[in-house]
């Protein structure tokens, strides 16, 4: 979770730079102040600043503090292009794997697993407006579908790719509108699984992947 949170803080600090609230060569507020502003731990702030420094957005000066680098905006533009390419790559993987996993799960899902998925959707609905916990619920929904395939090799593969796939969830749920659209897709996928319709489950999951990828463009 720390990794996801520090990535979110990186994005928020970059947005402050874009809109001029933080200016070139200006000193960043102290870790304690930033932790209070963003409601995260100081360790998360340190990880975010480290990532920003590695990307050339900020520069740390021993004894003086951390400052917005002169070329911060240029580095952010280049970084955004790299992130978009990586997200595109991740969604290629998700669109190959997840529709097929849903199709397989449709023929093997148990009654208890259906109940678990329903409980996740109930919690997702109750959790609006969106918060960091919604991302965990989204991940839980997709993980349960993988478990419903009853294929240990697929489950191992999903675990291996977990951290990479998680990168696509940090941004896909940034607004209530996007989150509600995703939740509606989850209901459609669950309906297909409950009907034991492999074709419908595959099509619903593919449509969901296409929708989420479009949100990120």
The share of residues in extended strands comes to under 5%
Q: Describe the strand arrangement of the main beta sheet, using strand numbers.
A: 1-2
- Please work out how many helical segments DSSP would assign: 9
Sheet having the most strands = 2 strands, antiparallel
Shape-level CATH architecture of the largest domain: Up-down Bundle
Helix content: over 70%
N/C terminus separation: 24 Å
Tally the structural domains.
2
The secondary structure category is mainly alpha
> What is the CA-based Rg, rounded?
20 Å
User: Which spans have pLDDT < 50 for at least 5 consecutive residues?
Assistant: none
Q: Report the CATH C-level class of the largest domain.
A: Mainly Alpha
According to CATH, the homologous superfamily of the largest domain is GntR ligand-binding domain-like
Mean pLDDT across every amino acid position: 87
Structure description:
This protein is mainly alpha-helical and about 220 residues long. It has helices at about 1-20, 30-40, 40-55, 70-105, 110-125, 130-150, 150-170, 175-195, 200-215; strands spanning about 60, 65-70. The chain has two domains: about 1-70, Winged helix-like DNA-binding domain superfamily/Winged helix DNA-binding domain (Arc Repressor Mutant, subunit A), CATH 1.10.10.10; about 85-215, Four Helix Bundle (Hemerythrin (Met), subunit A). The protein has nine helices and two strands. The chain has a two-stranded antiparallel ribbon. Helix 4 packs across helix 7, helix 5 (about 110-125) packs antiparallel against helix 8 and helix 8 packs antiparallel against helix 9 (about 200-215). The two termini are about 25 Å apart. The mean pLDDT is about 85.
